[in-house]
């Protein structure tokens, strides 16, 4: 069964909507990485911020009021007309929602949690549902008034990518005819302080694969697609999912799970480009460079876009799949933005330079996502053949 990523709604630190995101993505803009001193006590860090007015959650969905769902709503509004056409064709009970998040709406509940710590009671308007991981898929379902199966995937930094793979299995099994898929995560104190406690945050703007890399920037964003059998511009070619079970927060240094995930995703196709997980941490970049080099050598163009957006955690895999979608539409590649200081201890890779063009020739584009607990996923897409 051939599946397609028919439409894309996207918002992240590169901009709002496909056009603005594409313009800044291919220009290698880091304007969305902004210093912020409100999340971590007595410390300023760079974060990837969506710096625009977000849509207001309608009052009838007040239970779901959170920044996370506002980001989701902005991405949904870009593709809402297409979704309504889909509902007209299949019926609202045959449209699934499969999305990923790691934060859900906890950022919007943090003031209430602080009040509970200080005063012993939650404020009257506190509702746990806003921070439940299920809230994202429930909000999208309620907002669109659809009644098909719904699921929120929460597997840390692979959540948004794993949602797409899960939805593909649902369509292939006949559980639904089409699915709204993707990922959404919003900035919050919990994640920033957590990564700070792990000494994983960069002191400046992150430098993936650089000899000077010192950690990640955290970002926020939303990317939502329609996945269906209806022919479109971008074909969803496959996925590979593996589990290292090596360490709770460190990747297996040999990269065997990453290699297998990429092998499964690409199948028999040649590879035109890889969007690397590329967090700019010491261990991830060493593992990923080794895995990509061992499987594909040093001639396949690749880049990490986290130096443009920050690490969007549960939304990263979906947004970076969106970058592949935009690359195929525009026949351009996202440049690898760093300081150019190679780490001689890393396996060599071919990083995309500004203005490099995409040469597909029926090759696939890959997107890697790796997460805590050693769970790995790689997604593969290509430009659809003319009918």
TrEMBL record:
<dbReference type="GO" id="GO:0005829">
    <property type="term" value="C:cytosol"/>
</dbReference>
<dbReference type="InterPro" id="IPR014030">
    <property type="entry name" value="Ketoacyl_synth_N"/>
</dbReference>
<dbReference type="Pfam" id="PF02801">
    <property type="entry name" value="Ketoacyl-synt_C"/>
</dbReference>
<dbReference type="Pfam" id="PF00109">
    <property type="entry name" value="ketoacyl-synt"/>
</dbReference>
<feature type="domain" description="Ketosynthase family 3 (KS3)">
    <location>
        <begin position="1"/>
        <end position="383"/>
    </location>
</feature>
<dbReference type="InterPro" id="IPR014031">
    <property type="entry name" value="Ketoacyl_synth_C"/>
</dbReference>
<dbReference type="InterPro" id="IPR000794">
    <property type="entry name" value="Beta-ketoacyl_synthase"/>
</dbReference>
<comment type="similarity">
    <text>Belongs to the thiolase-like superfamily. Beta-ketoacyl-ACP synthases family.</text>
</comment>
<protein>
    <submittedName>
        <fullName>Putative 3-oxoacyl-(Acyl-carrier-protein) synthase</fullName>
        <ecNumber>2.3.1.41</ecNumber>
    </submittedName>
</protein>
<dbReference type="InterPro" id="IPR020841">
    <property type="entry name" value="PKS_Beta-ketoAc_synthase_dom"/>
</dbReference>
<dbReference type="GO" id="GO:0004315">
    <property type="term" value="F:3-oxoacyl-[acyl-carrier-protein] synthase activity"/>
</dbReference>
<dbReference type="InterPro" id="IPR016039">
    <property type="entry name" value="Thiolase-like"/>
</dbReference>
<feature type="coiled-coil region">
    <location>
        <begin position="69"/>
        <end position="96"/>
    </location>
</feature>
<dbReference type="InterPro" id="IPR018201">
    <property type="entry name" value="Ketoacyl_synth_AS"/>
</dbReference>
<keyword id="KW-0175">Coiled coil</keyword>
<keyword id="KW-0012">Acyltransferase</keyword>
<dbReference type="GO" id="GO:0006633">
    <property type="term" value="P:fatty acid biosynthetic process"/>
</dbReference>
<keyword id="KW-0808">Transferase</keyword>
């Amino acid at each position: 069964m051939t599946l397609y990523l028919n439409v894309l709604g996207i918002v992240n630190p590169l901009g709002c909507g496909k056009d603005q995101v594409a313009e800044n993505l291919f220009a290698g803009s880091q304007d969305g990485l902004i210093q912020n001193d409100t999340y971590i006590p007595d410390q300023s860090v760079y974060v990837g911020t969506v710096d625009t007015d977000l849509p207001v959650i309608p009052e009838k969905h007040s239970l779901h009021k959170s920044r996370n769902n506002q980001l989701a709503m902005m991405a949904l509004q870009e593709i809402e007309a297409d979704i309504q056409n889909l509902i007209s064709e299949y019926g609202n009970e045959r449209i699934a929602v499969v999305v990923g998040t790691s934060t859900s709406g906890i950022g919007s509940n943090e003031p209430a949690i602080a009040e509970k710590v200080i005063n012993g009671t939650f404020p009257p308007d506190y509702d746990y549902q806003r921070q439940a991981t299920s809230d994202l898929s429930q909000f999208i379902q309620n907002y669109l008034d659809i009644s098909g199966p719904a699921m929120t995937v929460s597997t840390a930094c692979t959540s948004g990518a794993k949602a797409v793979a899960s939805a593909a299995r649902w369509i292939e099994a006949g559980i639904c005819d089409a699915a709204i898929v993707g990922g959404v995560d919003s900035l919050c104190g919990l994640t920033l302080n957590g990564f700070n406690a792990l000494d994983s945050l960069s002191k400046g703007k992150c430098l993936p694969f650089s000899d000077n890399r010192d950690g990640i920037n955290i970002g926020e964003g939303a990317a939502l697609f329609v996945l269906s059998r209806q022919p479109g511009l971008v074909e969803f070619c496959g996925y590979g999912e593996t589990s290292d079970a090596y360490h709770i927060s460190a990747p297996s240094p040999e990269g065997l799970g990453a290699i297998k995930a990429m092998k499964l995703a690409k199948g028999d196709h040649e590879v035109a480009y890889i969007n690397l997980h590329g967090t700019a941490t010491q261990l991830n970049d060493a593992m990923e460079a080794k895995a990509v080099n061992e499987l594909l050598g040093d001639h396949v163009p690749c880049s990490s876009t986290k130096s443009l957006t920050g690490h969007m955690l549960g939304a990263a895999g979906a947004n970076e799949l969106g970058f592949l979608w935009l690359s195929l539409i525009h026949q351009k590649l996202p440049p690898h933005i760093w300081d150019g200081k190679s780490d001689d201890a890393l396996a060599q890779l071919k990083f995309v330079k500004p203005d490099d063009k995409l040469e597909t020739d029926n090759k696939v584009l890959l997107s890697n996502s790796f997460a805590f607990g050693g769970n790995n996923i790689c997604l593969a897409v290509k430009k659809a053949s003319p009918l």
